[in-house]
Amino acid sequence: MTQIIDDLRTVIDMYVGKEVFLISGSEDEDMSSLYIFEDWVGVIDQLKTMSPIIEMETRVFHGVLTRSEFLPNSFRRKSAFIIQLNLGDASEANVIESESEASWELANEIEDVIKTVNAISDIEIGIENIFILYGYKIETCLSINEDDVDEEIIETCKNIAAETIM
Fold first, then answer.
1. Contact at 8 Å (CB) between 113 and 82?
2. What is the reported pLDDT for 64?
3. Rounded to the nearest 5°, which phi and psi values hold at 64?
4. Residue 2: what pLDDT?
């Protein structure tokens, strides 16, 4: 399924617990459009529509999407990416590369994101507007190859996600 997210919350809810690919703007952007795909073919198709300059600043992630209310006991040495929805624009989100190595550190990072957004925004966000992608970032160079898809990491991430879904 290839789509730009119009109502991000509704679409992300459909993908909780599933393997997904995300395309997001650069780390320097606070908020950017977020694209979600069920397979890497959709990612390739989207990247083909983007200009090379934009694409070089674009980040591609592959992993399993979960809610942030429940965190696993262990990340099993996989990365976590915090997805903060923009309540002011239903098609935008901020993808933050977590530096956490433990669940309690990730919980603190999530709390910091919520506090920071609530301190500078007129709209208060809550934990229900934060999602986690357990997976990895795919480096792009005007495209990605099927070989860049790491099924072993995804299997581990699916196990992590299973611990968080209640």
1. yes
2. 94
3. -115, 130
4. 36
